[in-house]
Amino acid sequence: MRVVILGAGYAGLRAALDLGRAKARGFLPADTRITLVERAHCHRVIFWMHQVAAGTLSGADTCIDYTTLPLDRVALERAEVQAIDPGRATLTTSGGELAFDHLILGMGSVPDLPGLPGLAEHAHTLRDRDGAEALNAALEHTLGRAAYAGDRQEQERLATVAVAGGGFTGCQLAGELAHRLPDLADRHGVPIRHVRLVLVEAADRLLPHMAACHGRSARRILETKGVEVRTGAPLERVSEDTLTAGGSGLAYGTLAWAGGIRGPALLDATQLDRDAAGRLRVDRFLRAPAHPEIRAAGDCAVRIDAPATEATATEAIHQGRYLAAALREEAHGRLPAPYRPNRLGLLVALGDSDAVGTVGPAPLAGRAAGLLKNAAERTYPDTLRGVGPEAFRDPDFQRPV
Q1: Which end of the chain has fewer CB atoms at under 10 Å, N or C?
Q2: Residue 394 lies in a domain
Q3: Strand runs labelled E in 80-158
């Protein structure tokens, strides 16, 4: 059995680790070959990118080296994927061609940049390390320019940071910047009273994919930190120094775009069924309906039965684990149960140990939520390395894996 996993993000890496562990314990056929294809030299922890952008964490600290992970039963293929051929069940990579019996797509996503005038030219994104570091460099450069601006109006413009998009990423970035910008301004000699941080969101509330109470809590917390929140303000156009949102102009120095994601361009050439954002449509078993040997998890996939589900790291990890367990079941001639979404909850960081969201069914906001969020993120690398109890229960089948 040849299993190929494309992408070592949250979903793909989790599936590879669980399949490797299953093979080591004899839960997969002895001839099973697991290949993980990834172009990056390390696993990037995307949920820390807003901290890289703000300068509170270095890009190197978001990198987990594959050699530190238990991948001894997995063949790691460092290559760029150039094409997927579902009909021939092959991948074409920069290292050659790979055939598969089962393919797991965990390629993540890219920023969704709508065709707004000036957006692509002037906005920064933070879906990867390069983007986050470029945004941080832009903040440093612009505040440095503000310190030497010839008049107060120009200094205030240069010291204005705009974040477009009030979803998970935008709220997390705004919360982190609210604590970081005063330090940056002070270091560059810019009066703190001239610094502005503005968060604009097209919907009528923040965190529109969560319950309304979380959006209200996020707004209250962010405004307490000095963030100017503008809802019902879709971004309309961008120039080098001014943006227009909801009919109102805003002079800015640095603009961050956090307005959504879409599937990677590689999927466009596969002829597989995709949604309007280019994400692969999958059924209740996370399979491509026309090609059940192809499965997808994480940001690059959208469930047909739940198209509005927001892409999160927790959900991607859960889906990767499910796919590994499903393949194990099928290898023994058993039909896996349909995928069940993560039920542990969801927390959105808002800077300085604040967060909003749910833990299980219970809503939570403020410091208690932030402490839980920080603890979960700090322990994530250990979960990859297998630190903790040797035996754990598979969430979908309740059998030891």
Answers
A1: N
A2: no
A3: 81-85, 90-93, 96-99, 102-105, 110-111
Within-domain flag for 322: yes
124 and 253 in one domain?
yes
Nearest to 159 by CA among 140, 182, 144, 143: 143
pLDDT band at 200 (very low <50, low <70, confident <90, very high): very high
Same domain, 107 and 21: yes
CATH number for the domain including 169? 3.50.50.60
Closest CA to 262 of 128, 108, 112, 47: 112
Q: Determine phi and psi for 296, rounding to 5 degrees.
A: -145, 150
- Whether 234 and 164 share a structural domain: yes
Task: Answer whether residue 394 shows pLDDT above 70.
Answer: no
395: pLDDT strictly greater than 80: no
CA-CA distance, 333 to 330, in Å (whole number)?
A: 5
User: Do both 230 and 278 map to the same domain?
Assistant: no
Tell me how many domains the chain contains. 2
**Structure tokens, 400:** 């030891």
What is the reported pTM? 0.92
- Residue type, position 70, single letter: P
Q: Which residues contact 21 (CB under 8 A, 6 or more apart)?
A: 70, 73, 386, 401
Domain that holds residue 230: 119-257
Q: What is the pLDDT of residue 44?
A: 94
Q: Do 105 and 319 form a contact (C-beta atoms < 8 A)?
A: no
Angle at 243 between CA 239 and CA 246, to 5 degrees: 140
Strands (E) located in 181-259: 196-200, 228-230, 235-238, 242-245, 248-251, 254-257
- Do the domain assignments include residue 373? no
Say if residue 132 is in the same domain as residue 234. yes
pLDDT at position 387: 67
Mean pLDDT of 229-251: 96
Query: Does 240 share its domain with 133?
Result: yes
Q: Do 85 and 177 fall into the same domain?
A: no
Q: What are phi and psi of 122, to 5 degrees?
A: -120, -10
395 compared with 292, residue with greater pLDDT: 292
